[in-house]
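Revision sheet: structure tokens.
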Amino acid sequence: MADDSLTDLTRLMLAFVESKGWLTPDSPHPQTPKNIALSLVLEASEVLEHFQWTEHTADPAALAGELADVLLYLMQLAHLHDIDLGQAVRTQLSRNQNRQW
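Predicted:
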């Protein structure tokens, strides 16, 4: 069974990015924080397309792919900034628990 921890998924994501040559200085797809943040927003917008004019997606498998793309860019952005995403989520959940909504 595959391990789906954020650490393992990040390792797999980095191996993929490296295999494409995107970490080299002359890459046509430089993996800069700005480029990754832009890609994250673009992928999140593609999630919205699944709900345009409807409340439910017609293609759950395609939606799963878009959600995975969002997570991949999010993990890469966290990695570029040495952010422990799991800890960041726990910290934010704790902050939100104490917020008045």
